[in-house]
Amino acid sequence: MMKEKIRIRVKKIKEKLIEIFAAYRISLILLAMWTMISIATELFAGCREIGMDAICLFLLVFAISVFWGEIWLQGRKNKKIIFCIVTGTISGLFALHTYDYFVLTERMDEYLIGYIILLLILIFYYSYRKSGESFSEYIGNTWFNGIVVLCLYLGFLLGFLFLFGMMEALFFIKIINYAMIAITIVLTGMFLFPGCMWAVTDKKRPMGTVVQTLGFGYIITIFYVLALIVGYVYMFRILLQMQMPSNEVFTVVAVLFVISIQQWVTQESYNEHPSYMKFLSCLPYFFAPLICLQIYSVGLRIGEYGLTPDRYMGIMLIIFEIITVILWKIKREKLDILLPVMAVMVIVSTIVPIINMYSMSARSQESFLIKYGPKAVDGEALGELEYNRLQGAYRYLKRNEDINGFEDKYGYLTEIIETESHANKKIRHSVHGCQMVGTLDTVDYRKMHMLNQSDEYDFLGYEKDSEVDFSKFKLYIRETGEEVTVNLSDFFEKAMEYDLENPDRDSEEDSMYLREFNCVTVNETRIFYVNHFRVIYYMLENDIENQVKITEVEISGMLLEK
User: Fold this and answer.
1) Which of 53, 182, 239, 525 could lock onto 562 through a cystine, CB 3.0 to 4.6 A?
2) What is the torsional sign of CA 231, 312, 107, 415?
3) Which residues contact 375 (CB under 8 A, 6 or more apart)?
4) What is the DSSP letter of 411?
């Protein structure tokens, strides 16, 4: 009985593989060629010298292009041939540019990214249209199948890593590095890519399995709701404290949106409880206020330092999020429109002249050079923000070659930028003294406590406006948690002075020097002995005002009490 079941299962797998190969044979053959040439390119350095990496790029881009054509033009052989000629030419141009044989524009690399993203969107769209399923069912099943493929892929990689690790440890043969490179390429070309092809094109079964219902219907929803709550708490904190949001705000909300849109689109296919479905249908409206956080965060960065491709794409994502929420409200059954909308946004962002991300970013950054460049040449004092804008714009435009004749137009700023950069170079300093307390005379004291610093000093380097007031340094008694404030300003000044005068000393010398004055009076009844003192701080090179930025501090010791 078991033997018969295995035979039937193997037969079904074999039939499925034959079916996939028959439908997408050209793209699968291209992937197989990519796999073999990629292995040779990675393992033999000489292959790169003859342009094999360019051939790999051609095969991969062509395979993705052909895969879309095989979905779109099923049963139309003549059109497939024309399609392959056109897409093969486009893929070849990208490959030739990589190998420096052909340079149509300096932006070919960026156009390549846009082209691949556009192809992936078209693959999804035409696969969905061919599937005959609702958009909700298609996205839900594709998402689930994709997770299965990815888990199997990672499982194979870990299995081979363990196997080769055992062989290396037991037989003393150095194979793991080269073997893992080859296995990773083989699994990627012969399993991951075909697995993804299967995930987006397989005729799906209706959703509703236990794993899918629990995973999509409840578990992901629970974590999504918790993430929304955290986002709201952070938003209210900004409103109450009027605190500028960190750079991570946009990324966190963007990731939340990626999880959200899958949840919104697929919910109708895996849950039928009316009350629960009503709750799920309200989630997009709860997400909408968080878009304001992204607008505020991106707007601040653009206002301070101008437009860049990353910030441009941030704006496009915000627009897409707003469109999604509006579409959810007015025409929920037409969410599949989002795929063509996404395709148009990719074309506008990466290809359309004048308004693409590179052209607009170049104009934005050049405006800083036009505004602040003449002032810097005339010797006018620039504020910190103004100088940072000038320096950032100059380096961005020079690195990305966004302006024709850049050196002729703005080469006069080179000396100013480099001189100012050197003058404003931040130098790292550190002082580290440990085990500075030896034998203590406690005759006149009735109690001794161990003190640790307050938790507020734990993340100094991550807070933009953090400062340390050593005149009121906060510590606490380990046993009771009582806070003790100690004036360590004189101690820190002596430590910093010693550090600046003796740049080549080590921590042992720090300890010996600091031990001489590590006893600090707290009040009439208490004294504090510094036992461990570690401070990392930054100063501007040639800074006559000694402006110090503390990034790490660790202080502990003993408190004696009369």
Assistant:
1) 525
2) negative
3) 382, 386
4) G
Type of residue numbered 310: D
DSSP one-letter code for 334: G
Going 132 to 133 to 134 to 136, the CA torsion angle's sign is negative
Asked whether 513 and 472 are in contact (CB, 8 A), the reply is no
The whole-angstrom distance between residue 323's C-alpha and the CA centroid of its chain comes to 24
User: pTM value?
Assistant: 0.68
AA letter at 331: K
Any residues with CB less than 8 A from the CB of 78 and at least 6 apart, and which?
none
Beta-bridge partner residues of 430: 536
DSSP at 483:
E
Q: Dump the DSSP string for 81-135.
A: HHHHHHHHHHHHHHHHHHTTS--S-TTHHHHHHHHHHHHHHHHHHHHHHHH-S-H
Per-residue pLDDT of 49-86, as tens digits, reads: 667 888 888 899 999 999 988 888 877 777 888 888 88
And the tokens for 257?
């949106």
Structure tokens at 267: 């919910």
Which DSSP string do the residues of 158-172 spell out, in sequence order?
HHHHHHHHHHHHHH-
Q: How many CB atoms lie within 10 A of CB 513?
A: 19
Over residues 410-460, the pLDDT tens digits come to: 777 777 776 655 555 567 788 888 888 877 777 778 888 888 888 878 767
